[in-house]
Write a structure and sequence with these properties.
Rossmann fold, globular, alpha/beta, 8-stranded mixed β-sheet
């Protein structure tokens, strides 16, 4: 019987997952708050439904797999469990697998040390706490109804049109330098690789996976590598202590860790398409139109 995946939140990563699902004959239904996008989407060969109780109940009656790609909010926590928890319980016997897209922000600041799935949070910000609370809520739900659940803690996502090459082409000229600050990344296609591998292997049960590449690196190192690929002049280095940062950027630089992907590769038996930012950016350079500008 053909698998039917219900995706809560049809954002950047979910778009790429839908493309892959079409290739491997998985039927897709996804939620959107954009009323103009409702109905059959020819590009992704999927049905887009409204984030409402009636639409969700109809979708859950058909769904064999569920992926949650919506972020938690300060007032509701996880919007899927808050709005549709009773419906999920009603249809729990039909659900073969649940995936939740979380964030490596749940680890907080480890002062540049390596973290794995067993690492405890340190100096966790509000966004990271919301994510961690949501993970716990889904773990409780999955354990109560004995449903395989995989939580994917995603590193910084990049991919087509969402990467440093695009920002440089748009005029970025400065790069902030903070000595000893590491950040982990993951290409969107490798997120899809991990999600599909887990979805097709429900015997992994209830488990958490870091989804990051092999080489955490300081942001300025990646910026300068990308500028060299584009054959741009050297970027203007700005010392972190003198930089004027937005609240989001301040939180970004307040957390310093290197994220291990050992468990992901071993248990799901996968090899990343882009094991470091170098392979990822080089592929984007060749295939995303930058050489034609």
């Amino acid at each position: 019987m053909r698998s039917h995946l219900l995706i809560f939140g049809f954002g950047y990563t979910a778009n790429f997952l839908a493309q892959k699902a079409r290739e491997i004959n998985i039927q897709i239904t996804a939620t959107t708050r954009n009323k103009d996008a409702l109905g059959y989407n020819r590009e992704f060969d999927c049905e887009l439904i409204h984030f409402s109780e009636k639409s969700i109940e109809q979708a859950l009656a058909k769904a064999s797999h569920i992926l949650i790609s919506t972020p938690p909010t300060h007032d509701l926590g996880d919007p899927v469990l808050y709005n549709f928890g009773s419906l999920l319980k009603k249809h729990a016997n039909n659900i073969k697998w649940i995936g939740y897209l979380s964030s490596t922000g749940v680890y907080g600041d480890h002062h540049g040390r390596w973290v794995d799935e067993s690492s405890k949070p340190i100096a966790l910000g509000l966004a990271g706490k919301l994510r961690l609370d949501t993970e716990d809520a889904w773990l409780s739900f999955a354990e109560a109804y004995q449903i395989p659940l995989n939580i994917f803690r995603l590193a910084g996502i990049y991919g087509p049109q969402k990467n440093i090459l695009t920002r440089l082409m748009a005029g970025k000229q400065d790069t902030i330098v903070k000595d000893g600050h590491f950040f982990s990344r993951i290409h969107v296609e490798d997120i899809v690789l991990a999600v599909v591998a887990a979805m097709q292997n429900p015997e992994v049960g209830i488990n958490i996976y870091n989804v990051a590449d092999d080489e955490p690196a300081p942001s300025h190192v990646v910026d300068e590598y990308a500028a060299a690929l584009l054959q741009l002049p050297p970027l203007n280095r700005v010392d972190y202590a003198q930089a004027i940062l937005s609240p989001i950027a301040q939180e970004f630089y307040s957390h310093n860790k290197r994220v291990s992907n050992t468990k992901l590769k071993k248990e799901l038996n996968i090899q990343l398409n882009y094991p470091t930012y170098k392979e990822g950016l080089a592929h984007l350079l060749q295939n995303d139109g930058y050489l034609c500008r």
